[in-house]
Amino acid sequence: MKVHHITYPSKLPVPDAGGYALAVGFFDGLHKGHQQLISEAIRSSQKNNLRAAVMTFDPHPSVVLGGKKEDIFYITPLNQKLELLEQQGVDDVFVVRFTSNFASLTPEAFIQQFVLDLNVKHVIAGFDFSFGAFGKGNMELMKKYASDTLEVTVIPKFTKDEEKVSSTRIRNELKAGNMQLVCDLLGRPFQLDGVVVHGDKRGRTIQFPTANVEPDEGQFIPAVGVYAVRMQVQDEWFDGVCNVGYKPTVQNSQKVSIEVHLFDFNRDIYGEQVRIHWYEPIRKEQKFPSLEALKEQIAKDKDQAIAYLAARPL
Known about the structure:
Elements: E1 2-6, E2 20-24, H1 32-48, E3 51-58, H2 61-65, H3 78-88, E4 92-97, H4 100-103, H5 107-116, E5 120-126, H6 139-145, E6 151-155, E7 159-160, E8 163-164, H7 167-176, H8 179-186, E9 190-197, H9 202-205, E10 211-215, E11 225-233, E12 236-245, E13 257-262, E14 273-283, H10 291-310
Parallel strand pairs: 1-4, 2-3, 2-5, 3-4, 5-6
Antiparallel strand pairs: 7-8, 9-10, 9-14, 10-13, 11-12, 11-14, 12-13
């Protein structure tokens, strides 16, 4: 898969002579609704002998348009998004740097420079996709300004339980800890990447050593609580139980931590890049009267996670 980084107006891509079937959108999460769009681009590319392409944007438009000063956290940071797109079978990804210059483009200029000049033969987007200055461009305008060589497809709203599947909905479910529904909306487990760092090593004292995972920058962290998870270490997957929270029994930290206890695991993995897949929520984080009470609860959490994951093989 080829990745083209675009900065307007200084760095525009050279179009492919054969043309593209292009799915366009921000695509945070690459959920089931997004997958429909991308599958249509792939289907069209195969039918019409085109390259299957995706156009996405970085950073999130709200950083520029909304003037947000706080950090933006993504369901799928760009590196994850690219990995998932490659797995789905995309040939090319155009990553457009979202700047104030780009945001000021008229809708007509966007169509000309980022669709027609790119030799796109078929453009696919969701019913609510907007583009150009002040978001005034929509897919009806795309159809109006399309040349005779450009096919335009609008994908209708994709729903689950009569509610639109969207990145906003998934974020809200992550905030609530509804991990099973998140997995259903994504079509795969929620994923978080990070590095194993040194913690207080208190888990060893109660026979439940944990890997303290520092998430990669910009990733959305699920709700505080205890979960059944799998963690990838050096290309191997291990079942475990994960606590997201502030460790009120032993520390009452001001910073949220992600601690994973892996079953039947005894390696020194400090500094390793790891990946966590999130499954069943087990319970909320709580303060226990003693370390012994905490130890007893973790044993129960472990048993519940083992039972859940045993029924869901890799």
